Amino acid sequence: MNEQEMLKVQGYLQAKLGNTDLVLKKGDAADCYELYAGSEFLGTIYRDDEEGEVSYDLNISILAMDL
User: Fold this and answer.
1) Please, are residues 49 and 57 in contact by the beta-carbon 8 Å criterion?
2) CA-based R_g, the chain, Å
3) pLDDT digits (tens, 9 = 90+) for 16-61
4) So where are the chain's domains?
């Protein structure tokens, strides 16, 4: 995912989830971005390009101790 795509995805998430504090940052893996709400890590997002169809997969894990 390039920076332009990342900004589009970030804007989409902010609009859909109603939170302008959501930010995507480059992750450690080459194809991974990390989703943050302020300074709190929420999950990872990957770009998937299968047969010319592009999608973005968001994975959020919730630990039981955080509930």
Assistant:
1) no
2) 12
3) 999 999 999 998 888 899 999 999 999 999 999 998 899 999 999 8
4) 3-66
Helix (H) or strand (E) segment spanning residue 3: helix 3-17
pTM given for the model: 0.86
- For residues 36 and 54, what is the distance between their CA atoms, to the nearest angstrom? 23
Q: Which residues contact 46 (CB under 8 A, 6 or more apart)?
A: 1, 31, 32, 33, 56, 57, 59
Give the C-alpha separation, 11 to 28, whole Å. Answer: 22
Look-up: residue for tokens 């919730």?
A: 62
Taking the C-alpha atoms of residue 35 and residue 52, their distance in angstroms, rounded to an integer, is: 25
